[in-house]
User: Fold this.
Amino acid sequence: MLKPISPDSSIFYIGVDDTTIDLFENQYPVPHGISYNSYAIRDEKTALLDTVDPRATERWLEQAAEVLDGTAPDYLVISHMEPDHAGSIQALAERYPEMTLVGSAKALAMLPQFFRDLPRNPTLAVKEGDVLELGTHTLHFVMAPMVHWPEVMVTYDSTDKILFSADAFGTYGTLDGGVIDSEMNVEHYWEEMLRYYSNIVGKYGNPVQRALQKLSALDIRTICSTHGPVWREYAAKAIDIYDRMSRYEGEEGVTIVYGSMYGNTEQMAQAIADAAGAELFAVSDFSGSIADYDRIAFGCSAMGDEVLEEDEFEPFFASIEGDLSGKTIALFGSYGWGDGEWMRNWEERAKNDGAILVGGEGLIVNETPDDEALEKCAALGAELVKE
Assistant:
């Protein structure tokens, strides 16, 4: 898809949708596909920013050629070497052997590891604070290691106040003809952003915070990520989500309380909490008041003759049932035998208490949750905090 995203039509989106992929990075379900975003700046010097996954190389090269209109790009700016963004570098370099490859020193050093027969294009290693003059546009480079690869850098166009943010602020989901947030319905992308952050970036909270501190000095009016919509109207919201998630701060008014015998329900609870941005408590550690929360997820393993764990969790849940009326709740847990009768009974009990059950039913997993089960947990967490 080719679409101008700057006021003077000098910056273009040239990314592609992938509707055929089932698992992102061979482990995370993407039922709505994913976009591989790439951008082009036409000026006195022309720059392309990132390539796309090898699955989409030919389509992307056609779009790049269209925006180049018979000319050769002067630069390819490489944010990082992850294959879904760097996977078409060799094909582009073969087509344009005079094009300069721009990246951090670490990124350029990694090129031979990914491409054995890479043409001998000129290279330009940039560091924190370096700039690249294209003419009207000036690119500033900011190093963002471990968000979420060690060589990551982001690029800021000080002319149009656009941040090319690599994977930061990305989401799952194809764009389906849209690009800029203000021109499309982005409601479902917020859930996909939480899921993407939890899956891909979540464990790198401290590096994300360091990057956000650097970026806070910039006047950012548009964010161009390598996945998902271009954030303009909601750029501040996207930054706020990353700030909150990377601080590991809970979503206000949301909590997760669980009981786990063998650690399986605990794994589910952690995945739900990560996606919801919520506080997480083992039932033995919870000392707050359920009345203080609007949205709660309760997790408990099936025990004995398919009942809630009787020593701690059952007494706890019985004690707070009077506070559940009108509250949005989720139920989840693991089991080793039976057919889920404990969850069906629990669902009925919660509904009789006046609770609003997310999805209308609880989420159950047999024994240890696999990747697919953890994805369902993440989806439940995202749904729990959805307005």
Summary: The mean pLDDT is 93. The domain at 254-384 is CATH 3.40.50.360 (Rossmann fold).
